[in-house]
């Protein structure tokens, strides 16, 4: 008889967003006709910008004519897009990477989940706490944990790097040995950003321990304050120890279009194979499991990297940053302690009066009719916080913030 993969059974409920939906639905049933204001989810809301939309329309026209039709592309991505990504890193960040080091994908989430497959089963994994849940869950499903420890409220065998007020939400490298380190800056959920000096400590650690950093830079376009790192490759030596994952979701509004990329440098080193093997294995993995990103999305991505496209992305990101500023200012006016919200689309707000994450979630839903995300859902260091997302129409964000300010002391 077929048996299921028991490592998948070790995944705890995945309960965050379903639980938010359940509580919101229950409240809505009790309060029919009342509008819920949603600042919970990291999903973009504004239209694709005109030049990028036109490039995708044009690609559809080409596909609609047998003389210009194209079917499968390269699994690694279209050559012009890989070249444009390489030029973009050089132009905007002064970083030199070969076009062949870029693997175009249908988004950062899948790459963040899949990258662990090319590393040894007995790898020790370190994650920031709190963190985007994909890093933890994919490694649990990948067989690197003996299961969830209910008492500790963490998975066994994983190394958690606490990010909290005392370290400004930028964790220190692990004390002992680990093999893979997941980092995300600007951080989801805390909104923290990292400097070159802070990341250098991780690169030095990785060199010393022969570890690999998996750096998720999905929100790097939100960085507007000089001095923070957009790509880990700005840090000297990172090309030997870091893989970077990125996306067009949050700067070009491609959450539904789907397009991202992963950089796997040729020079990455590992303990048991020659230099170049990690690049070769990711290429092999992608060619086996993936058939290339949509050619329509890639036409949009190519445009997004052009001068005109970059201006459009900037305008779009400015809109969400404007929302983030309204949220931060409003919540601070309401007396809440807030982090993030600058150089990031997320405001990390401390629950008042000693409330827990879920308690504050219920309070905001009940009193202000606003849905946020309980911080605890991202890891136990998120307890006592909520993540407030700037992804929403300006008018809804303003209404939600006004409601919070009015009802915070109810
Ligand atoms: N990485 C982080 C840190 C995210 O917060 C998200 C989405 O919210 C993703 C990756 C997913 O990106 P994509 O839409 O490209 O799959």
What would you note in describing this structure?
The radius of gyration is 21 Å and the shape is globular. The relative contact order is 0.17. By secondary structure, it is an alpha/beta fold. Strands 2-10-9-8-7-3-6 form a seven-stranded mixed β-sheet, sandwiched between helices. A four-stranded antiparallel β-sheet has the order 11-12-15-14. A hairpin with a 5-residue loop joins strand 11 and strand 12 (346-350). The mean pLDDT is 96. Helix content is 37%, strand content 14%. The longest helix has 27 residues, at 307-333. Bound molecules: pyridoxal-5'-phosphate. Residues 42, 107-109, 112, 132, 184, 188, 216, 218, 247, 249, 255, 260 line the site of pyridoxal-5'-phosphate.
How is the topology of this model organized?
Elements: H1 6-9, H2 16-30, E1 37-38, H3 50-63, H4 79-93, E2 102-105, H5 108-114, E3 125-129, H6 134-141, E4 148-149, E5 154-155, E6 159-162, E7 180-184, H7 196-209, E8 212-216, E9 242-247, E10 260-263, H8 277-289, H9 295-304, H10 307-333, E11 338-340, E12 346-350, H11 357-368, E13 370-371, E14 373-374, E15 385-389, H12 394-407
Parallel strand pairs: 1-13, 3-6, 3-7, 7-8, 8-9
Antiparallel strand pairs: 2-10, 4-5, 9-10, 11-12, 12-15, 14-15
Helix pairs in contact: 3-9, 4-9, 5-6, 10-12
The structure holds pyridoxal-5'-phosphate.
Pyridoxal-5'-phosphate is lined by residues 42, 107-109, 112, 132, 184, 188, 216, 218, 247, 249, 255, 260.
